[in-house]
Amino acid sequence: MAGKIIYSSLTQAEAGAQLLLMRHPETKGNSLRHFVGQTNSPLTDNGELQRQAAVDALIAYYPGLIISSPLDRCMAIARPAAQALGCELKVDERIQEMNFGAIEGMSAQEALDKGLSLPWGEGSGGWPVTGAEDFDEFFSRVHGAYEDYMQLKGKVVLVTHGGVIRAMLSHILGLDFVRAAKLRSPNVNTTILNIYNGEAYIESMFLRPDEVILRAHH
């Protein structure tokens, strides 16, 4: 879906900050539909193509600061973009993906076959499994990071994960987890938020890297 959803006409110049949230490129775990939380999974060939497009988009966007999850799939975008721009790169463990504990690296069916609960949907009654985060823990750490980012100025990029982006959007839109789980952020797609007087306004969602570049040149 192209990035046509506009919730606010507030410009970045009028806002205190503009946050661009970008999801990492496709990993092998994504392509196999495995639960990949806080472990590293290599990029697929398609993910490598996405990675370069995403780096080009961030360079065109020209932020003053890039903040990244420490996981390799996010740093694969954040590090080369920051190096090319000569801007500051910060790593924030609070914007890592949810920890899936005992079901890390499994498909949903594999987890169910082992008698393990899923984090959402059918078969989610026993969550969290051993070693996993519960939703209160996950949302608390993501929302804590979000509140800190609300104090930033200028153009800032967050390179992070689908679950983290959903958690932030649920906070902004006042959605519970069931509804938030319906928000989908495809690999290397972006959401742009304008921050004004302590409030976040969604400027656009579902932007592909080429659309970020096009907007940057206008």
Which terms summarize this structure?
218 residues; alpha/beta; 17% strand; disordered N terminus
Characterization of this structure:
Helices cover 37% and strands 17% of the residues. The chain is built from 8 helices and 6 strands. A 6-stranded mixed β-sheet has the order 3-2-4-1-5-6, sandwiched between helices. The longest helix is centred in the N-terminal third of the chain and has 17 residues, at 45-61.
Percent of residues in helices comes to 25-40%
Given the helix and strand composition, which structural class is it? alpha/beta
Give the N-terminus to C-terminus distance in angstroms. 21 Å
Main pleated sheet = 6 strands, mixed
Q: What is the tally of helical segments?
A: 8
Catalogue the unreliable spans.
1-10
* Mean residue pLDDT: 90
Q: How much of the residues is beta strand, in percent?
A: 15-25%
Q: Could you give the count of β-strands?
A: 6
**Succession of helices and strands:** EHHEHEHHEHHEEH
Biggest sheet, spatial arrangement of strands: 3-2-4-1-5-6
Q: Cα-atom Rg, whole angstroms?
A: 17 Å
Shape: globular
Short account of what is shown:
By secondary structure, the protein is α/β, with parallel strands linked by helices. 37% of the residues lie in helices and 17% in strands.
